[in-house]
Amino acid sequence: MTEKKQTDGIGFALRKISLDQFAVLKEAYQEGEKVGFDVSLDFGLDTGQKMFRVSSRIRFSQQKTQPFLVIEGSSVFAIEPEAWERFAFEGGQAMVFPHQFVAHLAALNVGSLRGMLYVKTQDTIFNQFLIPTINVAEIVSEDVRFDFAVPGGDA
User: What's the mean pLDDT in 128-140?
Assistant: First the structure.
């Protein structure tokens, strides 16, 4: 277990790192062509365990629409109970996490993904493709809100 960290007074601990998807599509890669990448982030909660999940997916591609390299990984963070309660709104029907905090967790996840990619492509021609420094604060520019359905409420 990783030691508890503080970010803007929010205590959290890294509980799990996982590689969720890894694919190399050799036929989609042409050596010498320009390479680009895109990043997507997804977030989830385990309200019972007070856990926040960040998933990052990086796709490397060339001029074609099909990527030649895809990697996705998740990190699960335990949030201190006091901090967790501060994020609850509307009588517990919503949770709102500050974007700076979420960006910090996302940066930790992307860093883990960077290492996973290096290990998975070791001793291949695809090892030249590294995940560069990514300013996740530009991606996570607003607070992250989760709304929960009210049991028996109107849909």
Answer: 94
